[in-house]
């Protein structure tokens, strides 16, 4: 008798969400003590966040061979940062316009240090990006300062590795990162229990109002992703003068793969092949840009974190000024650099940014059950933006030869 495959983590979490909502409706406020299990789950994720963020960013930057392909890397990183910041800003604008979190009016509103009227000046905000003591920043869980230190350390590591021809530290770091990711994976095995407990307690306290924001949130997030991809295509058309109809057809296979698998890593081989053969980007450009993009370019992740932070603030009636929203955009952009390939990446990402804005950590459970749908939107934007970046870099370096339709048919591509 053939063994049944275990349910995927996304399905388990989705089922846990449904059961948690049902349990909350059935037992009401009497189920509140079960929240302890959810709080333990969140803390287990949080305990490794600083190590996860530092390790991923340092490894990504430290692995770059800046001397060999400095120009290509430099151009790619600039586009990555601009496009990820633009994605975060666009997500914020969409959330402000359509207010997916409005109307929930949950009690126990967050006491954010960034509520309107309490935001520090722009010079202080910029200064606060830079730690004066990295250990103090780590102890306080200041993710922005931790990432800035990791970027500088990673750059120094890259120069050291390629000047001294010594890779032992980088190899050790890779092993540590693998262990940390495995540790997060172990914690994520109990995610269904944690999500069930948090949603049961929340639903028992709030009632079915917990569901309404999620439906609207997914609609707004989906629309934001679709429109942003359209804006990306317009930029590609203006820069490269490529026919957009043909471009859309030729990225369709990798886009469908991204949607189906919700994994940039699994989609990478298909994206690499189609970028070279269907789009005509030269081998070196495609390999460098798409490989870099796996770690350093996360338009989808930046938009996801930005739009989710604004949604949570609306759910808990936390009012943010435009200056605060600008900080949210920068935070989401920097945090997207640490977008590790771990099970339940959406949950892990939110655990990084939600506490930074003083929002209730338990609010993450509201988004856990729709992780699979969120993953689809994040992944297609992540993958397609990597490919679009390779087209621009290829065009700038005269390494783009967009094949004609007849050539594709003849070669069977």
Automatic annotation (TrEMBL):
Transmembrane intervals: 7-28, 40-64, 76-98, 143-162, 183-201, 221-242, 254-272, 325-352
Keyword Transport belongs to the record: yes
Residue ranges of coiled coil: none
Gene Ontology, cellular component aspect: plasma membrane
Subcellular location: Cell membrane
Membrane topology label: Multi-pass membrane protein
Keywords of this entry: Cell membrane, Membrane, Transmembrane, Transmembrane helix, Transport
Chief localisation class: membrane
Keyword Membrane: yes
A Pfam family assignment: SDF
Gene Ontology terms, MF aspect: symporter activity
Protein name: Proton glutamate symport protein
Organism listed in the record: Schleiferilactobacillus perolens DSM 12744
